[in-house]
Amino acid sequence: MTCRVEVLFTPTEFRALRERDLARTTCVVFDVLRATSTIVTALAAGAASVLPVNEIAEALAVRRQRPDVLLAGERDGLRIGAALTGGIEFDLGNSPREFTAARVAGKTIVMTTTNGTRALRACAGAERILVASFLNLEATADFLGRENPESLLLVCAGTGKDAALEDTLAAGALCDALKSAKLEHELEDAALIARDAFLQARQDLAHAIGEARNARRLLRQPELRDDVEFCLRRNAFPLVAANEADGGIRRLR
Predict the structure, then answer these.
(1) Can the peptide bond before residue 34 be classed as cis, meaning omega within 30 degrees of 0?
(2) How far from the centroid of its chain's Cα atoms is residue 137's Cα?
(3) Which of 37, 61, 87, 170 could disulfide-pair with 231, CB 3.0 to 4.6 Å?
(4) 112 sits in which H/E element
(5) In this structure, what CATH number is given to the domain that contains residue 108?
(6) Residue 19: its pLDDT value, please?
(7) Domain of 84?
(8) How do residues 173-221 score in pLDDT, each as one tens digit?
(9) 3-state secondary structure of 226
(10) CB of 127 within 8 A of CB of 23?
(11) Helical H runs in 99-188?
(12) Are 249 and 51 within 8 A, CB to CB?
């Protein structure tokens, strides 16, 4: 069986997912700068699970029911503070460097971000939802090679309503890695575009992504600029992250 591989580039395409039958589709979500990189880092540091929610109010509702959870997330790139919540400071922002074992090991993290968590929620109904980044790209590709899905949909979280270069290049890198993973597959046109963009940029990926809108924004902020280099590390964490039936994202291996 040949796996059909598609790529969605922008959040404006998420709405159409609600009308698709995803029951035999594996979705892989990318928000390289920074939500999926942060989730992968949290799981590598020993977090029990990450629960993505769309809105701040949803995160606060979970905290009321489960006071032991950590709240994490951002708006406009910055940690959610008391001004947006009615007085509650979130425990963590969306910088992967905050998610150390000392802070998150054994914890459930409730997370809301501008685009990344919405991309994850848009894939509800898929046979499987994987969380990917450059940090766990090879492990994700190898897992797909073993699982041999019928259909593969790579979902780029984007920026606002627009495409994000870093997500497009990561999706293209996964398309390229599927060959080594020995997954028999066929790339649709959008996947070909993403793969070719990655192949063109891969000799100096840091430079290419450094010109992206999200990277430029982070690089202008001294406390966040190191996130860009952190998120571009290839295969730093050999783990597979999956969104499970209860909504929590956990480490599969």
Answers:
(1) yes
(2) 11
(3) 37
(4) strand 108-112
(5) 3.90.1560.10
(6) 86
(7) 3-251
(8) 999 999 999 999 999 999 999 999 999 999 999 999 999 999 999 999 9
(9) helix
(10) yes
(11) 101-104, 116-122, 137-147, 165-180
(12) yes
Phi and psi at residue 96, to the nearest 5°: -60, -25
The pTM of the full predicted model, rounded to 2 decimals, is 0.97
The residue type found at 70 is: L
pLDDT digits (tens, 9 = 90+) for 219-247: 999 999 999 999 999 999 999 999 998 99
Under DSSP, is residue 1 helix (H, G, I), strand (E, B) or coil?
Answer: coil
179 Cβ neighbours under 8 A, 6+ residues apart:
none
Tokens of 21: 């039958």
| Length, in residues, of the chain | 253
Number of domains in the chain: 1
Amino acid residing at 43: L
CB neighbour list of residue 211: distance below 8 Å, 6 or more residues apart: 165
C-alpha span between 252 and 23 (Å, rounded): 20
Do the beta carbons of residue 59 and residue 110 sit within 8 Å?
yes
Number of neighbouring beta carbons within 10 Å of residue 98: 18
Do residues 93 and 132 lie in contact, with contact meaning Cβ atoms separated by under 8 Å?
Answer: no
Task: State the Cα–Cα distance between residues 184 and 152, nearest whole angstrom.
Answer: 11
